[in-house]
């Protein structure tokens, strides 16, 4: 895949594009160069420069240019391999037809030939790796969905509106319903994940609020107390609102995240999390109250909401919002950034036959990313839960975030801020893994894989 002539061709290409000979290629030079090569894809030059520009000076020096092309080539190689069904090192028109059919796009043999001819340099009616590389090297499209978009937009082929794989929400996708598929995928992932791990979530909240040095509650002890008080079904107390809450939260988080450039991953994850949390925060408060309720205390979530509103007013629904918002930055940011980075690193180093990492890799990435996020944000989550639970106290007895934190540290030491982290970590593997895997597979099942 990497050979000396290719290295040489990078040098030649760079010199050809660098028309003012300042050792850098900017967007204008690249745009002109692409035009001269017959590549007219809207925004291609900007996308290539943005992807490769590591020092953020708005242009590519030779090292950045070479690094971008090498990374891009790796991705092109994976796509080439996935199209080459019979593994003979060449793509023919029937393989193009078959791959499009797998994505739900029916094209005639004649159309498949048109696509092939657009890449076939030597006239053999086959495309080998060199021809494929030559054709897509300076086109920002690198996976099959993007390449199909490129074929679609470059007028090689008119495949109408049958392609529902958004890399961004265009007007076309909004009108054809691509956006709700993202919503459904996120909602299902969140609902399945939370129901599966509800007992661990309840025991975590129970330990966060009631456990202390003087009143140590172990994992097993917590379960026993809850079962003694309300039976086995009480382990799912608060799960109804949790499922209702997590569905919009996960969906909003993922949708917001997918709209932001991935090189701004940390910021993207944090903003996506903040958007979701602000929208559904009153449901968070309800969830904590319902999770901690005694048998018969509330008839249901609406009864709980009415009683809180009547007794404590609207403000009660935003108790703990400050530590919650501060916790989003480390949690959502680190979680999504680590997940994406681990997944992409795996693809760059270990993917040889397919651009799909597989369930186990996605599971591993999701678990590690969530663990990192939780370690950073857990003390804030604990303080938030305490504040939500104590909102029913008299206003004079309600502690502020900083005083509550000081009180916990003074009474229980720094480890007091990590009460309930054991069940929390125990639910990391099932909860996050189920969530990300269901999300990835829902996306692929609904035809919106990126």
From TrEMBL:
Membrane topology: Multi-pass membrane protein
The EF-hand domain, residue ranges: 5-40, 71-106, 107-142
Gene Ontology terms for molecular function: antiporter activity; calcium ion binding
Membrane-spanning ranges: none
Main location: mitochondrion
Family annotation (Pfam families): EF-hand_7 (PF13499), Mito_carr (PF00153)
Solcar repeats: 177-259, 260-345, 357-445
A Gene Ontology term for the protein's cellular component: mitochondrial inner membrane
Places the protein is found: Mitochondrion inner membrane
Known catalytic reactions: phosphate(in) + ATP(out) + 2 H(+)(out) = phosphate(out) + ATP(in) + 2 H(+)(in); dAMP(out) + phosphate(in) = dAMP(in) + phosphate(out); ADP(out) + phosphate(in) + H(+)(out) = ADP(in) + phosphate(out) + H(+)(in); dADP(out) + phosphate(in) + H(+)(out) = dADP(in) + phosphate(out) + H(+)(in)
UniProt keyword list: Antiport, Calcium, Membrane, Metal-binding, Mitochondrion, Mitochondrion inner membrane, Repeat, Transmembrane, Transmembrane helix, Transport
KW Ion transport (keyword) present: no
InterPro entries: EF-hand-dom_pair, EF_Hand_1_Ca_BS, EF_hand_dom, MCP, MCP_dom_sf, MCP_transmembrane
Family designation: Belongs to the mitochondrial carrier (TC 2.A.29) family.
Subunit structure: Monomer.
Stated name of the protein: EF-hand domain-containing protein
Naturally occurring in which organism (per UniProt): Astatotilapia calliptera (Eastern happy)
